[in-house]
Amino acid sequence: MSIQIAAAKFLARLIPRKLTFDNYGDCYFFRSIRVARMSSAELVEYQLKSAEQRYNYEIRNRTLEYIFGPCEELIPLLENKIILDFGCFMGGTTIAWLEMYRFKKAYGIDTDSIFADGANLFAKRKGANAEFCAAFGEELPYDDESFDAIISLDVFEHVKDLKRCLAECKRVLKVNGHLLAIFPPYYHPMAHHLKVTRTPCLHWIFHGEVLRRIQNELIVNKWGAEYEHLLLGDLDGYRSPYLNGITVRNFRKLIADANWEIVVNKIHGFPYMGETVKRSRIAKLISSINQKFARFPFLEEITLDRIAMILRKK
Fold this sequence. Notes:
Blueprint: H1 2-14, H2 21-25, H3 40-61, H4 63-68, H5 71-78, E1 82-86, H6 92-101, E2 105-110, H7 113-126, E3 130-134, E4 147-153, H8 162-172, E5 173-183, H9 202-205, H10 208-223, H11 248-257, E6 260-266, H12 275-279, H13 281-293, H14 300-303, E7 307-313
Parallel strand pairs: 1-2, 1-4, 2-3, 4-5
Antiparallel strand pairs: 5-7, 6-7
Helix pairs in contact: 1-10, 3-6, 3-7
């Protein structure tokens, strides 16, 4: 194990990623920070700052249009509709969507009450018609046929039981309702979800426990002092976000078995998402090349940036 950790740490340091609020405080570390050591005012400040960051990012980047196409194609699916955000985090993205696409009402779930509470605070600040709660996707706390559409952005790769989550999505959707599913397949080069490095493909080589340990060590040893105001507790208990190993092939089988209709299937080569990618000519060139390879079933697992589908409940 020690040899693996040393090797993984060496590779991770080849392309380090600087910790900032955008990629540190605004991610899964809220689960590992000992929030009990924060005052109520400090927690609210972090919740609202995190929600505002996501809100502003979405207003700038309009992720759904970037992935699926012009706003005119999305408006009929979302305008004046009741929408569920499956994995809402602090609600910033949800509220941005509500405003941009004129939802009738937005709902959102996430697994941590800190996220749901923060989302409700942000919705109140924005005067948005939205409600959020803590729940797991395998057991949605809503009645049958409650929603016109469900949006899940970069969440399905984390759930424990994707088959059950898809069944729950289908249950709470109205007939002819839509599920917008966007997430990276497991063999996506950056699907390790490590916040301390941009070195790709580490999860192809090392076990998750190895990656967890090197992430902790790199955070505490290298960046801990500089970002002491973010390290409100030690990170020994941090677990990198759970990854279920879902592949393109397996996801297609799941939706076929559940009788979902594929309305839209967008193919974007890696790397495609992110503001840095948008500004980089080299990244755009690599993405365009990978997009061609992503059309081949035996290459799509490693060249596809996101599984991006709009599914309809029959």
